[in-house]
From TrEMBL:
Organism superkingdom: Bacteria
UniProt name for this protein: TetR family transcriptional regulator
Regions recorded as binding DNA: 67-86
Residue stretches making up the HTH tetR-type domain: 44-104
Keyword DNA-binding attributed: yes
Keywords, sorted A to Z: DNA-binding
Region Disordered: start-end pairs: 1-45
Pfam family, one: TetR_N
Gene3D superfamilies assigned: Tetracycline Repressor, domain 2
Organism expressing this protein natively: Streptomyces anandii
Composition bias type Low complexity, residue spans: 7-38
Length: 234
């Protein structure tokens, strides 16, 4: 995430796991720019407070409830400092979504999906992630609206969300090696479908049952792209 003194910089992260590394390579390199400076412990703590305040405000009142001045007050940082971390509310909420997905990923790793096939494991994983968002509908709506409003200036944050979603899917697939181009293509289609299903559910145009059907259907693409020598672990 942005370092305090550099608006567009990314914060250093612990070394990513295999799935995260594959996701970064599949989408144009690592999430941190080469010129980014690692955040100090104090800066990272400040950034975490900001993201926590953003999530709390969004959980209570959705997109409109996240006002930069209130976020600054809740996280105990100066308003100018907040804008150095996140130039706008959209930047902040997209970063909040990446943070929420990262937390979900950690939870999912503690209890991996138990499906027999890669398609079943990915579908189960995405539905678990969906149910987690379902428990916080105002927060989910705020984050999705921010993604919808994001322009080119928010591309780094949007890419982080995409990388995190890809890493979640790749982990669930349980590949023995790097994904093939066909598998990566399937992952992208699955990711798009999952985000679209979230949008249609939030807008009241799809039921949870329909979301599950759509997710399970699109995940079958994985089985179509599996090769005997590059397939998922049994």
């Amino acid at each position: 995430m942005p370092a305090e003194a550099t608006p567009g910089a990314r914060a250093a992260r612990p070394s990513p796991g295999p799935a995260a590394s594959r996701a970064q390579g599949a989408q144009g390199g690592p999430s941190a720019s080469p010129s980014a400076s690692p955040l100090t412990e104090r800066q990272e703590a400040r950034r975490r407070r900001i993201l926590h305040a953003s999530a709390q405000l969004a959980s209570r009142g959705g997109f409109d409830a996240v006002q930069m001045r209130e976020v600054a007050e809740s996280s105990q940082v100066a308003l100018g400092t907040l804008y150095r971390y996140f130039p706008s509310k959209v930047h902040l909420l997209v970063a909040t979504m990446q943070d929420q997905l990262e937390r979900m990923h950690g939870t999912l790793r503690k209890k991996p999906p138990a499906g027999d096939s890669a398609a079943e494991r990915v579908a189960e994983t995405l539905m678990r992630a969906f149910r987690a968002l379902q428990r916080e509908p105002h927060l989910a709506d705020a984050m999705v609206r921010a993604l919808t409003f994001a322009d080119r200036s928010v591309s780094p944050e949007v890419d982080q969300v995409s990388r995190q979603t890809t890493a979640i899917i790749l982990d669930a697939m349980g590949l023995e090696g790097d994904p093939t181009p066909e598998q990566l293509s399937a992952v992208r289609v699955i990711e798009h479908t999952w985000h679209s299903a979230l949008i249609t559910w939030l807008s009241g145009r799809a039921s949870i049952a329909q979301v599950r059907i759509d997710i399970e259907t699109v995940c079958r693409l994985i089985d179509l792209t599996t090769r005997p020598d590059r397939g998922p672990r049994a």
